[in-house]
Design a protein that fits this description.
Helices cover 42% and strands 18% of the residues. The chain has helices spanning 2-14, 35-48, 63-73, 75-81, 100-112, 155-168, and strands at 52-58, 85-91, 93-94, 97-98, 124-129, 134-139. The chain has a four-stranded mixed sheet with strand order 2-1-5-6, with helices on both faces. A two-stranded antiparallel ribbon has the order 3-4. Strand 5 (124-129) and strand 6 (134-139) form a beta hairpin.
């Protein structure tokens, strides 16, 4: 009887979703990883390379977040921006639940920002100068270019907003 109970208990334990391995390899937002570690690594790399760090806060379920990630990954956009900045995606949510480590990164950058911008939705951008820890924050709603069939961002508006923001925290 003990053997049957133990077998059932182990079977139940192994099938519990909370104990299953997290798999986010195909995701833009790496929710299985500590977001503070991702941020600290990206910040250190940007500091070493003498670049700004553009932090794209978002969630896997957010189409505008994916649009901005796609724009930041675009070679033409990167060329236009030059060698001024690195990009990192930080997850704020795992499914619909707040991701604690992503929220810590957001709070940290908001505390460093000189002008307090209230986050109005996602994606939300923080631009960090890792040499002096100056930060500027951007809501992205005004940078969108939505149509009836797609949700996205206007690359010219995004470029201009990033350029002005980076100039303000040199």
């Amino acid at each position: 009887m003990k053997t049957i109970f133990l077998a059932l208990f182990c079977s139940l334990l192994l099938s519990t979703p909370a104990l299953s391995r997290c798999n986010d390899k195909k995701n833009v937002y790496k929710v299985c990883s500590d977001q503070l570690e991702i941020f600290n690594s990206a910040s250190a790399k940007a500091r070493t390379q003498n670049k700004m760090l553009i932090v794209n806060f978002g969630a896997e379920w957010c189409p505008w977040c994916h649009s901005l990630h796609k724009l930041f990954s675009n070679d033409q956009f990167k060329t236009k921006l030059g060698t001024k900045a690195n990009f990192v995606d930080i997850a704020l949510y795992k499914k619909r639940d707040k991701l604690a480590s992503g929220q810590k990164v957001l709070k940290k950058l908001i505390s460093w920002a000189e002008s307090k911008v209230k986050m109005q939705g996602m994606p939300f951008i923080a631009i960090l100068n890792p040499r002096n820890n100056k930060v500027t924050l951007l809501n992205t709603a005004d940078l969108e270019q939505n149509t009836k069939t797609s949700k996205g961002h206007n690359s010219d508006k995004v470029f201009k907003a990033l350029s002005l923001s980076m100039d303000s925290i040199k």
